[in-house]
Q: What sequence folds into this?
């Protein structure tokens, strides 16, 4: 059975080794016995289809790229929103998740229209970066996500943001972060989030198995578990 | 106000001397001077000739080479040799070189300028020449990303400066757009060029000016090459000074600039070539005769220590110094390994990502083309350090045979393993922040 991963803007929004997330999912899905097909869609494409997607991923990019991607993706908003309603699992990491809200006030004061799936907004500047290690707590599941934030904006309306930043090391003025709707997850963490957060990787694989009607097989990923544990310990012990 | 400048310089000189006596850091004197006179940089009387160098990689080497050329040609040069390139460091070396009235005594001020801090420093004085060598994904936990760094550097660029730019780096070259009098350097097509970008990502895929797709005639490495935007006409600029060829035969290496200046070099690593070319261009632009500049560069011995040879038990090995959080530097080191036809093993050490700060961020490992290691025969790949689990996942997904990799949390154990179990040449690839962990175990040798 084939799982189709729709990888949005892999060459345009690919800033922090985000490709790792797709590769980690591909490996885990293969371990479940699936064939995996990766469909790449990018900024020069006239059409992006969500119809066959079993999973959608988008990563971080330059703010200027992200704004163009938001404009481009808006053309396919109806189909994307329908896929979200249908429960297609989706992961938006880094500043790509900003476009799921109402919009972003860019550094030059202009407003970049978001997809409006959530009520939050971001406000950006280009004088300094907000960078740092964080632990986010998902109060609905009790999970803690570890990773790194590297962005230009902070939320100026937090409607719909679900996770609580329980530890921040560095200059990241975020108290809340992340959104969830059906099987869509958006989170500020950059890079291979699914390496350092094996439970998150597993939950995506479980959802896909369930939607495909295939029984989920427990599989061990000791390096990923150790990486999470080590990071979490280091972050909890570190000074702010 | 003169008295404030005088006091600041006096304090700077005294603290500098004391700090030297106690072996302390190089930015402290400047810090005190700035407390006394916050705008001291604008009060100092600088020589007519001043050159600043910035970029993601090779700032220190380029500055050292420019200094060497200028000094060999009889000029007195003030520069931040300690590599302290934030405002305090700059004040330290400039005030340290001043008379008590604030006149900088040297003929030339040469400045290694930090990408993020030049905008603060150049508020007070504008270097005559500003060299920008390259912009890569580098230390993004601090630097955000290359386009952000470009916008930050833009704040340090003024109309009265002459920019000296790498024509082969689209983002760097875009600084020269609509600017008269800009000087460009770059490389002609070289035998080591590639028709495609071999990297995991391609920062030259889209035009930095209009964001439409770009095409390349060839790539020197990563996104450095001969590019052209398919939409707005932005393209590699013609060069004022050019690396026309590189040669390596019978253990002797040399490069040729502008078709006629042959410079013997220790190795023809492409980025080393760019640093030499940048230094040559800066020196010639500053008024040194090209043949004199070439002659001095030929006599320059690279002290950067990017390469160290060693023995470990019966093993011979070579450390290829790279930078954590900088995938381009790792890609270049991997190229060295891949082009070596001997039997070999490779150790990667990621133990502390930075000496200065803690971060868990290992995302940059996913930007490095470890896949390329599959193009050569390698006996063993040793993954060492506190981030060995992150490395292990990365190598597994690179499709590298798991039987080939060994993993160690501690560098000592990794070195022990190597000396007892390996019998091939050992490459070690790591960063400044981790190199001592292996160099303290092995025996250093003179470079072969």
A:
């Amino acid at each position: 059975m084939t799982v189709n991963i729709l990888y949005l803007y892999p060459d345009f929004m690919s800033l922090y080794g985000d490709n790792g997330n797709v590769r980690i999912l591909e490996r885990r899905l293969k371990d479940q016995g699936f064939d995996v097909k990766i469909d790449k869609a990018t900024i020069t494409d006239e059409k992006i289809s969500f119809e066959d997607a079993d999973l959608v991923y988008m990563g971080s990019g330059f703010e200027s790229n992200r704004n163009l991607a938001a404009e481009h993706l808006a053309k396919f908003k109806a189909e994307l929103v329908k896929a979200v309603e249908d429960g297609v699992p989706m992961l938006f990491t880094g500043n790509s998740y900003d476009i799921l809200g109402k919009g972003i006030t860019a550094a030059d004061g202009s407003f970049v229209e978001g997809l409006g799936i959530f009520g939050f907004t971001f406000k950006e500047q280009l004088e300094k970066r907000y960078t740092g290690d964080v632990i986010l707590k998902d109060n609905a599941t009790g999970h803690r996500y570890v990773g790194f934030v590297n962005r230009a904006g902070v939320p100026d309306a937090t409607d719909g943001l679900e996770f609580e930043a329980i530890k921040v090391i560095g200059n990241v003025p975020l108290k809340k972060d992340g959104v969830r709707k059906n099987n869509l997850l958006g989170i500020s963490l950059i890079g291979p989030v699914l390496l350092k957060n094996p439970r998150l990787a597993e939950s995506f694989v479980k959802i896909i198995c369930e939607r495909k009607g295939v029984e989920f097989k427990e599989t061990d990923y000791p390096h990923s578990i150790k990486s999470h544990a080590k990071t979490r310990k280091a972050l909890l012990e570190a000074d702010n | 106000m003169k008295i404030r400048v005088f006091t600041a310089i006096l304090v700077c000189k005294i603290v500098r001397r004391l700090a030297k006596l106690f072996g302390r850091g190089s930015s402290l004197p400047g810090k005190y001077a700035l407390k006394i006179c916050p705008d001291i940089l604008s009060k100092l009387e600088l020589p007519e000739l001043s050159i600043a160098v910035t970029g993601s990689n090779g700032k220190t080497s380029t500055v050292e080479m420019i200094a060497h050329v200028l000094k060999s040609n009889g000029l007195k040069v003030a520069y931040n040799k300690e590599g302290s390139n934030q405002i305090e460091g700059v004040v330290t070396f400039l005030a340290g070189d001043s008379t008590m009235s604030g006149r900088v005594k040297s003929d030339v001020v040469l400045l290694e300028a930090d990408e993020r801090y030049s905008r603060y420093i150049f508020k007070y004085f504008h270097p005559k020449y500003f060299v920008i060598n390259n912009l890569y994904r580098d230390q993004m936990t601090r630097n955000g990303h290359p386009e952000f760094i470009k916008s930050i550097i833009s704040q340090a660029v003024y109309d009265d400066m002459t920019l000296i730019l790498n024509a082969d780096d689209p983002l760097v070259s875009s600084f020269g757009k609509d600017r008269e009098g800009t000087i460009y350097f770059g490389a002609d097509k070289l035998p080591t060029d590639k028709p495609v970008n071999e990297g995991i990502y391609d920062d030259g895929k889209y035009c930095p000016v209009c964001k439409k797709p770009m095409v390349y005639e060839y790539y020197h490495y990563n996104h450095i090459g001969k590019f052209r935007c398919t939409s707005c006409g932005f393209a590699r600029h013609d060069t004022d000074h050019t690396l026309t060829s590189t040669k390596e035969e019978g253990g002797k290496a040399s490069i040729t600039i502008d078709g006629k200046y042959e410079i013997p070099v220790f190795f023809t690593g492409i980025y080393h070539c760019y640093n030499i070319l940048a230094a040559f261009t800066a020196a010639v632009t500053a008024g040194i005769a090209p043949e004199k500049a070439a002659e001095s560069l030929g006599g320059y011995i690279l002290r950067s220590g990017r390469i160290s040879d060693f023995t470990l038990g019966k093993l011979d090995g070579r450390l290829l110094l790279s930078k954590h959080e900088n995938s381009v530097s790792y890609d270049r080191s991997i190229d060295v390994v891949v082009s070596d036809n001997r039997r070999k093993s490779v150790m990667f050490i990621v133990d502390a990502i930075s000496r200065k700060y803690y971060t868990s961020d290992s995302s940059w490992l996913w930007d490095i083309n470890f896949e390329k290691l599959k193009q050569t025969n390698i006996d063993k790949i040793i993954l060492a350090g506190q981030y060995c689990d992150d490395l292990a996942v990365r190598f597994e997904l690179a499709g590298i045979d798991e039987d080939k990799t060994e993993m160690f949390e501690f560098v000592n154990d990794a070195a022990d393993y190597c000396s007892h179990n390996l019998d091939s040449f050992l490459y070690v690839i790591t960063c400044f922040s981790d190199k001592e962990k292996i160099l303290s175990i092995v025996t250093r040798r003179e470079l072969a």
